[in-house]
Fold this sequence. Notes:
It is a multi-pass membrane protein. By secondary structure, the protein is an alpha/beta fold. The longest helix is centred in the C-terminal third of the chain and has 29 residues, at 831-859.
Amino acid sequence: xxxxxxxxxxxxxxxxxxxxxxxxxxxxxxxxxxxxxxxxxxxxxxxxxxxxxxxxxxxxxxxxxxxxxxxxxxxxxxxxxxxxxxxxxxxxxxxxxxxxxxxxxxxxxxxxxxxxxxxxxxxxxxxxxxxxxxxxxxxxxxxxxxxxxxxxxxxxxxxxxxxxxxxxxxxxxxxxxxxxxxxxxxxxxxxxxxxxxxxxxxxxxxxxxxxxxxxxxxxxxxxxxxxxxxxxxxxxxxxxxxxxxxxxxxxxxxxxxxxxxxxxxxxxxxxxxxxxxxxxxxxxxxxxxxxxxxxxxxxxxxxxxxxxxxxxxxxxxxxxxxxxxxxxxxxxxxxxxxxxxxxxxxxxxxxxxxxxxxxxxxxxxxxxxxxxxxxxxxxxxxxxxxxxxxxxxxxxxxxxxxxxxxxxxxxxxxxxxxxxxxxxxxxxxxxxxxxxxxxxxxxxxxxxxxxxxxxxxxxxxxxxxxxxxxxxxxxxxxxxxxxxxxxxxxxxxxxxxxxxxxxxxxxxxxxxxxxxxxxxxxxxxxxxxxxxxxxxxxxxxxxxxxxxxxxxxxxxxxxxxxxxxxxxxxxxxxxxxxxxxxxxxxxxxxxxxxxxxxxxxxxxxxxxxxxxxxxxxxxxxxxxxxxxxxxxxxxxxxxxxxxxxxxxxxxxxxxxxxxxxxxxxxxxxxxxxxxxxxxxxxxxxxxxxxxxxxxxxxxxxxxxxxxxxxxxxxxxxxxxxxxxxxxxxxxxxxxxxxxxxxxxxxxxxxxxxxxxxxxxxxxxxxxxxxxxxxxxxxxxxxxxxxxxxxxxxxxxxxxxxxxxxxxxxxxxxxxxxxxxxxxxxxxxxxxxxxxxxxxxxxxxxxxxxxxxxxxxxxxxx
Length: 861
């Protein structure tokens, strides 16, 4: 059972204004760079402290110091006046600190309910899934999200996942709630839901910190505002007494020029003419024109079809109706390259996932779109790369140390500048900007807006998609508004107002009362998330959608025709041999599964089987007094030691698993060869009891198969019903997110490798008993079969998903293919090729399923 008492209990209500948490003169240094210096801020019960500052000012560092991700190099973190030292985010959670992260630290492959409680249950051998589902439904109701909590989180769109992150923070019953840019992916309706939750937490004495860049939201939610600049605390003011102009000046250290400079260019000829454009499930019958030198704004709620139109214009998705005309010529873009060749550039809203290669240097990222222009003699020229990228980076005033600095080390605002420079390097005629200022500071916003005005003045046609209404009102020469995939209104700059735009976007009755926009919403389709294949659609449909059912159908499709060709396929002797081989493969395949779900791989698994098999057989030959159990125990110890060594090097040596296990595979094979010395252990050299261990039948079923089934049931229980098992899936699904919530990833991965080695060693003992004659070449080349069984069984090579039943079905399918080909007298040399084709087919199916799921998520918008 999930012991509710083991979770953080509700904190006692604090007296409003009492200091609950604080940073006291903290300093944090990273590799000689001072991130924050002598910063002191206080979070008080029943209040919201807004933390303002440019990107790189130190806001995220302060958040991570309070959350236990970092420890201060000077000063201290205090909770209720007592200095604390958090060794991990988990310790901070136990102290009552909850964090809503800018990029949700969630796990797309786990259920929505599991996402709320993963990492909070401690070490539990029986999770109460029923309680978690009921509590998850209650918490999601608080944030206004109505979904099937048993569905995988990955089926939700980004804004809905952010609401799940909010619900997760609420599940901690925290006394301190830190919101790190939680509204970046939310619609206005969802932002209001969040602020309603915040208002409800004030009377409970929760101390809150809100980190954001949208000034409207800051002044809507904050009681006090603290400002950071260049890693130092500039000051803290009461929000009602701090003007926006003064707040901006505190952030940048000087008065800021107009945030929304007007485009004074006169629109030229029509560059882009869109008529009746539709894309099934996304938008329909969209028509508009775009002129040279014009900034056209796309307004509407998140999911209204704005981004989907941009994707079609850039050739990512294909339209189902309508025309796209450029300079009077009807175009059809089969790919983004076609769009680029016709002068279109698209800055995606997802700079991390779709616009940047985070491990690449700044220079490589800035020249990705113009690689053909950055070569000399067919080879990349650094001089040419710099010549292309530098002017645009300079124009955007990028802050960086060198062109070789990884782009992932930059602040969000500077990352966005690299993205813009990358696309400006293509010299486009049409520039599509999708949320170009999302998550960046006011100075960077001003730079981006100035760039837009400058480009429009030089004749570039620009489409601006933004969820910040003031930005659209300030920058757009003309605006079209979308709702549920259709254009509902069009406004020139001088006629566009907040009331008109919100009314067109929401079909609401909108008016302004005392300076505030008041809307009476009408229920819409996006009020309730539609998750594909929800439980309400019936248990049978969910069962039929399982991948394992498809595998068993494929097995039947192989067995039936081969049985017709050769009836020996169904003979007792053949089925018995097949069952014994299946038992051996299933055990080692599930061992490989433990590693793969954590985004690793173990190429040495077959070598461990061989080493354990020969070690157990030779030892029981020389020392029969140890008995069968002694031989099995020895094999398990050998496997455990080998797996532990692999895991130790991977986790604490930080060497990629494929490199480590490729090396240890040769090492283990070499040790085995030296141990065997060219000799073998035969059936007449070991006790009969050793051979009977797998040769025996129980009710007509080979003992080895029953042992395998028991092993698989134990592993399945651990993976499904224990906190450790779910944490393994979480690590594979989102390694960064696992670290943020305090899951000990290295310890868990080490445990996975060790358990995999233990199972491989156990399998080696069964192998030695099953095949009797053992030498140094036992299981030689078997690793390909094991990996094939895992992949075919539906274990995602990217980690995070899969089932033991799927692995069992994948192993059985491969053995049946092998057995069937042998019975119909196909050359055994073809077998490896067949395995390769099966692996490719399985990966192809997974890719197709992933694309379909992505399409359904897009359709749900």
